Queue: 2 jobs
Job 1
Amino acid sequence: MQRRALLIGTAAAIAGALAGHADALGPPASPATKRRLLRRVRPGDPDWPSDADWRRLRADVGGALTVPTDLWADCRSAADVDRCRRSFGERRNPYFLGDQAAGTQVYGYLDGWQTAPSVYAVAARSTADVTATVRFARDHRLRLVVKGGGHSYLGGSNAPDSLLLWTHALRDVVVHDAFQPAGVRGNPVAAVSVGAGALWMEVYDAVTTRHGRYVQGGGCTTVGVAGLVLGGGFGSFSKGFGLGAAGLLEAELVTADGTVRVVNEARDPDLFWALRGGGGGTFGVVTRLTLATHPLPGHAGSAWGAVQAADEAAFARLLEAFLRCYAASLMNPAWGEQVKLTPGNVLEISMVCQGIDEDAVAEAWREFRAYVDAPANRCTWQEPFGSGVRDPRTWWDAVGRKAAGSTSFRFDDRPGADPRRAWWSGDSEQVSAFLYGYDSLWLPADLLSDAERGPLAAALVRASRRLPVGLHFNKGLAGAPDAVRAAARATPVHPACAEAFALAIVATGGAPPLPGLGRPFDAPAARAEARAVREAGRELRALVGTPACYVSESDYHLADWREEFWGPHYPRLRAIKDRFDPDGLFYVHHGVGSEDWSDDGFERVT
Ligand SMILES: Cc1cc2nc3c(=O)[nH]c(=O)nc-3n(C[C@H](O)[C@H](O)[C@H](O)COP(=O)(O)OP(=O)(O)OC[C@H]3O[C@@H](n4cnc5c(N)ncnc54)[C@H](O)[C@@H]3O)c2cc1C
């Protein structure tokens, strides 16, 4: 099996405020209601819906009920290795996976979950389809699972023996010059309304390529809009524009009681707050989101290169120098994306910028380049430094980039596919990967002070001895404009996000553990790599007082998930969950309220 060290994110390139508004829902559910549901129904159980029940649901959703097929069936035995390998190719295409009811972007997570089709799927085409499905699942005590772009690392959109609510067909994108959230006072703002099943590439195409504006979404173009926003959500330019969730102006969703709600700062403000980072698949099924748009910055650009240090000591000094230059010249709204620190003492640079011109880009890197070029520092450019800027309107113009010979994007090459269906080449290695381990941690900006930089560099070197460590600067908001940081603090995302200069990520994985791929799965080796991820995470956690990490990019086996994902916000999120979903219809691994349930979400355990 080919071992891969994953540099998660897009390597190519990106509530409290609500207090004072009364919630209109009424009193919270009584404890008796809360404890009513103890066990969900599986196929074969006497309470499993009859064929007639399923026929009724099919009629209610206009025929949109299907039986998903197992995408990996041809690889589950070693009988026909050639056939499995041949079809593996299409499973490296994120759009192919996204177009299948049973498709998930990663194959699974070691000792956590593996992709498996639901028993039935509703490919909802309207809010009414969603309502009918939610009510059916509730009335029949089914395990309901919600899927949009299918990019959950934790398997949040995958559950065997479940009914899948798939938002794939809800993908209208409407750009507004002036949008007024219902019942909210103030001036209308420019915005975009997006069906919950849309992928970010479709939104960027409409907003930036065709309308010349900017919307804060994800870095990976094939991530689902709803899933990203519900988890908080970062893109390459988040240091300038903030969390995807902070841009949410309004959402339509169906809650566990089967009610359609339009929520915003004025309507159901608690629920609206929870949707902006409280996690996907937890508070209801979002059908539509409206997000603020911004004027496009003057330029968008990037800087790249790789520096080889002569040995570990030179690498530690290189990192310290880089972090000093980062704090002085790059920790500002202009710069995002990442560097990777490898076991071979290489610092790989894959940064992007917005709003600054070519001269400002060159100036930002001058001091660091001088450090690398000084012979006494024992570093060499393994890949020469390069940089450039472009018209930001062309950033997501996949067709234009392709015509210009760029290899930044890969394309959906299936016959008849829309030529705009593209993904950053740097995200390719994650498609259909089986994760062995994954960890993330917000690194506070205090660690960049003169006193702390040395210990930080030393810890990063130790953490990078067996696996690459990525520093994702756009996923920590220290250095962002004050308003952007304040907007992040007004969401349920852990407050550490606003104080962090970067999110450190360590992850590893390989090909799916399937006999049809022709090589036995080496479980001990995979577990050893998972241990290496945990060891790296421990090195970095030792640096910070209160560890915190990003819910959407985290360890499946994390013990303190409530504290690390949401910290002080957890009690409020839990209260909102109990109020809007007292029976726990919406369950996801490590989601708010999931502590009440068995790991598979079938048994209520408290
Ligand atoms: C290759 C890759 C690249 C990534 N890049 C980035 C990145 O650049 N920036 C970043 O911040 N994150 C990134 N992520 C993480 C990603 O943002 C989250 O996994 C996100 O939740 C995925 O949303 P989705 O709709 O694609 O996935 P899904 O798996 O479909 O959904 C994720 C979760 O949200 C729930 N959900 C989905 N739709 C709805 C809905 N309509 N209503 C209610 N719940 C819903 C699901 O039940 C599930 O629990 C990346 C992930 C992958 C695999």
Job 2
Amino acid sequence: MSERLHVFLTGASAGIGLEIAKRLTADGHEVWGTSRDAGRLPRLDRFHAVALDLNRTESIRAAVDQVRREAGHIDVLINNAGAGVYAPLEALAEKEMAQQFQLLVFGPMELVRFFLPEMRRRQNGLILNVASLAARFPIPFLGAYSASKAALSSLTECLRLELAHTPVRVVDLQPGDFNTPFHEGTRRLTCDFEKDYEPALTTVWKTIDRNMAAAPHPRRVADMVADLVGKANPAPVVAVGNLFQARIAPLLMRLGPRRWVQWGIRAFYGI
Ligand SMILES: NC(=O)c1ccc[n+]([C@@H]2O[C@H](COP(=O)([O-])OP(=O)(O)OC[C@H]3O[C@@H](n4cnc5c(N)ncnc54)[C@H](OP(=O)(O)O)[C@@H]3O)[C@@H](O)[C@H]2O)c1
């Protein structure tokens, strides 16, 4: 596409976000990309580093101010940053749960609230929320993460419905497993009743580790994003991943009773 877009991309220092940054800048777009530590961000033509910690309200405001000052306006908002907390749900204190929702739901929605009014005024814009297939297939011991992603997907769909009469486009992007540092970054909490959840607690952790190591390169998500930013009427929900995760499993889920889905999830994680 020939138009040079202004993109705000959270979580551009690693994994999927880093690949999106590389691809969109290579396509000629201007990308303002974030990390909690701006020193971790790539040095690329047309890439502008922004410090952002989604768990800190003042950091969100400072990042938005910087982007407004430097970019003037934003055409594409990509809420991509994320991280998980691994533990049995009964070990997750309210604070941990709230932090997951702040990072994966409240922070991204605050960014939507900052950029949407101008998109509506300019009669142009794309909001791309990176949720996860975990929104539809919750991952055991990543309960707060899965629930946050489901909430983000639901809010994204509401946004799309509410903005249907405007030219602002909204997409719920749901990746399956990709080979990124996500699992290394997942915080594994300890609790004194861990043994009551064994061997499942260890088995699922190892399965995720193995699956992510064997998963496709995140470049594939970046290619999908590059395609989406050029579309006048993108699909509301876009699954991206290997054939089983992105196509076959969602189809089976639509056709089968939830009990089968639960059985499938347990079989997938070996518990
Ligand atoms: N990889 C997968 O298999 C997969 C599957 C489904 C969905 N996803 C989703 O895709 C998105 C990207 O994941 P990824 O695999 O690329 O993960 P990643 O490689 O671990 O990268 C995560 C990014 O999020 C940023 N981040 C983490 N905590 C943050 C915070 N508190 N405030 C602001 N930024 C923060 C990190 O930046 P700094 O650490 O530099 O601050 C980093 O740039 C996430 O939303 C994830 O849930 C990933």
